[in-house]
């Protein structure tokens, strides 16, 4: 995208197909979780395209060869709650990654993030941090997560979202132009309650079957 070189919106037809299922109001939580997982795998694949590898000597049934293995040490940071649904797929792609949970919720009145849980280790010892959160709306939660990671010592940070709003992209990349964003779709705008339009509604509620308490 011309304005935001660090924004990568997937162009893959399989991603677009799965997004339609995810967005559909009639998609039940079980199917919704399944598609969050599948989309996470596809976006993780794209986000890892520039990861480093190192040589690995192996023996095939035919002969020995110089193969490759992933060299980057990776930290996965799911933002609770909704980011939880993205973890398993990412671990399939990166089995040696560490998972550090970060709990943030958005105050519904102020739309500002509130941190309530932080399971980051004491010291930074990874090459790449992937923040996992299905939704990038105002960008408040993502910016807070990036700031936590940078204070902690993270150098290379990528944000993996399923759906992003232009407002959130602008906020994150203005404050942190070194961060890269990978998403399945860039939607139109936020509504007056801070929800993404057309979006998919509340990603946490749709995954976990909540949201009927009102
Ligand atoms: C959602 C979403 C992001 C945040 C995005 O979480 O998963 O973390 O909102 O909004 P923002 O860009 O305006 O900060 P929510 O606060 O609803 O918490 P939940 O995952 O526990 O439902
Ligand atoms: N959080 C969500 O889950 N959905 C939105 O549209 C915005 C924030």
Walk me through what this model shows.
This protein has helices spanning 13-23, 29-47, 87-93, 140-152, 166-175, 203-208; strands at 7-9, 53-59, 64-70, 74-80, 98-99, 102-106, 113-118, 128-132, 135-136, 157-164, 180-186, 189-190, 196-197. It is 31% helix and 29% strand. The chain has a single domain (7-51, 71-208), classed as 3-Layer(aba) Sandwich (Rossmann fold). α1 (13-23) packs antiparallel against α2 (29-47) and α2 runs parallel beside α3 (87-93). Strands 1, 4, 5, 6, 7, 8, 9, 10 and 11 form a nine-stranded mixed sheet that branches. It has a two-stranded antiparallel sheet with strand order 2-3. Strands 12-13 form a two-stranded antiparallel sheet. It is an alpha/beta fold. Bound molecules: 1-O-pyrophosphono-5-O-phosphono-alpha-D-ribofuranose and uracil (URA). 1-O-pyrophosphono-5-O-phosphono-alpha-D-ribofuranose binds at residues 79-82, 104-106, 111, 113, 133-142, 168, 194, 202-204.
